[in-house]
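PT: before anyone asks, these are the final sequences, not the draft ones from last week. 408 residues across everything. Please model them as a single complex and drop the result in this thread when it's through.
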Amino acid sequence: MKMHSLPFSLDRADLKGKRVLLRVDLNVPVDEHGDVRDHERIVQVLPTINYILYSGARQVIMVSHHGRPHGKRDPRQSLRGVWRYFREMLAYDCHFVDDCMSGEIPERKLVLLENLRFHIGEEANDPEFARRLASYADIYVNDAFGSYQPHASVVGVPDYLDAYCGFLFQKEVQALSLDEIRHPLVFLLGGDKASTKLPIIGRISARADHVLIGGVLTFYFLKAMGVEIGKSKFSPEYVDHARRLLDRSNVVLPTDLIAATEPTQDAKTRVCAIRDIRPDEMGLDIGPETFARYKEILSGAGTIVWNGPMGLYEVEQFAGHTDGLARHMARLDATTIAGGGDSITVLNKLGLFKEFTYVSTGGGATLKFLEDGTLPALEALRSAWERRHGGGNDSDGESRGKGTKVSA
Ligand code: 3PG
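LR: through. Structure below.
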């Protein structure tokens, strides 16, 4: 898909004097003080913010989710740290509104509203929630490629405002619309977020040559196999998804782990087989045998899609095998695609960002886009456009171009 082909591309919007509601994905890793640990998602959306600010718009009102607070006000998931980053590190005169539903939007050029997910209306795709957000602005722009879930600020708001697609979103769509996949196609999936990853591993494994599992995802499979996982992180409701994948011969599980009784830098660790985790231990990284096996499979790959760390990478002593595999992938001749906040943080830490073929700001979004060739957000923008303007009507006849599915 060519970037200029979308009839609802941001560069086609008349922004003069308008208040713009800008959906961004500011779901960035933060430390215990709420300070930004990796700014990649923020930096990548700056071209869109700057474009709107300097196109004569009256105001830009940024909205985003952070974490998964599920309708509760959780200070650890506040966007205040991101706001500070805009002000202190990027020198934007950005103003903060403590409650996205308060309706009190200051007449300032750049405003950031507090976490949308502090209200359940966001996740529930409540039309009233969407209508209220829409009431703040004249135009809606979505540049949150990473926000793939059908939530109110993503799929609801375009019902009420003229809606456009931002530049980062379009860049991601263009880069991930792979015409041809070089096989073997290998997915390396780790991290957490079982609720979004496990349900799509079945479809991914139908197309991929190998799906290598690491991180917290591992424990859902071990539980499904009836293996004792000690204090390892997991939540019971997604074990059934893992159980349905156990007979897939191309879904590869760790054979060993690094375990400890505490997830801390000075905790005593040991390498153990997956069936040998003690009740007071938790698995915190893949083990050396798994690392070697995954390295070998990745070495033969034509295309690699990497999403999520292999262990608790935030603690240095459990980051070794995630770092090792990232370094290994960076050296390969394969097409290497990485996605997700944690993978980006690792690549930035290791200075390997540019060694990958493409690094996406999306996590689950990247997987979903590669699988479906589109996202709920893109379809919402498309239908809103067609409702308002009666069809594609683009200049080069490519307005309907969806991403290409990853196919075997
Ligand atoms: C992400 O980090 O992948 C996106 O911000 C989406 O977050 P979610 O999976 O909690 O919807």
